Amino acid sequence: MTSTTATKITLTVMPAGTAYEAESGITLLEALSRNGVMKHECDNGGKICLNLCHVSVLEGRKSLSKVQRTENERLDQIVGVGSKSRLACQAVLGEEAVTIELPTL
Ligand code: FES
């Protein structure tokens, strides 16, 4: 039997600059949810997605999973996305620290 051990990384959330502990291998949304920062999830199996988990990745972008076609298509529907934009439910944490910024509502 093989066991995998998740690496603990630091997830910093701007603009407050608060640092949280997160585990590699889980989505950014899951890490934010576990720390009480963001609690959104599309509840319809992803058919109609509201894209409310949009964040900007300021540091550690290369450590995250690559943007897949579905995420890219969803990002295209959001006004104000940039090259740092990710959907937290699609980005899986790697083994390096990540700094994100939550959009201002
Ligand atoms: S939870 Fe719906 S787009 Fe991320």
From TrEMBL:
It comes from the Bacteria. This is 2Fe-2S ferredoxin. Residues 7-105 form the 2Fe-2S ferredoxin-type domain.
